[in-house]
Amino acid sequence: MSETPKISDAEWEVMKIVWSRNSPFTANEIVDALEGIAEWKPNTVKSLITRLVKKKALGYQEKRRIYLYYPLVSETECIRSETKSFVSRVFGGAFKPMLVTFLQEEELSKDDIEELKRILEERKG
């Protein structure tokens, strides 16, 4: 499998639209979907789309001079890649200190805690 592309914060907003619904989308549909989420001009969104195509995060097909965009990478793949990158950059690749920091700093509900316990028990095996 090829390497997951590095996606900027602004590009994530475009990808969330493409991942959230049945694709493909025209550029104008993506612009419309981002209305109220980001205060970007249509040309800014189209530039983000072009960058995502160059990074091979989005693919496209042309139908009657209209470009239809669809994801080439899954949201799950990108989240995994970003998580690994974050843990590597901030915690030197060590997962445990990241998890401890998260658990100490975040407000967790009883349901959150039970879900974490369940996941740990499954991993324990």
Order of SSEs: HHHEEHHH
The quaternary state of the protein chains shown equals single chain
CATH class assignment of the largest domain: Mainly Alpha
The CATH topology of the largest domain: Arc Repressor Mutant, subunit A
Number of helices: 6
Number of strands: 2
CATH architecture of the largest domain: Orthogonal Bundle
Helices and strands in order:
Layout: H1 9-20, H2 27-34, H3 42-54, E1 58-63, E2 66-71, H4 75-91, H5 95-105, H6 110-124
Textual characterization of the structure:
By secondary structure, this protein is mainly α. It contains 6 helices and 2 strands, in the order αααββααα. The protein has helices at residues 9-20, 27-34, 42-54, 75-91, 95-105, 110-124, and strands at residues 58-63, 66-71. A two-stranded antiparallel ribbon has the order 1-2. A hairpin with a 2-residue loop joins strand 1 and strand 2. Helix 2 (27-34) packs across helix 3 (42-54). The protein is elongated. The two termini are 28 Å apart. The model has no long low-confidence stretch (mean pLDDT 92).
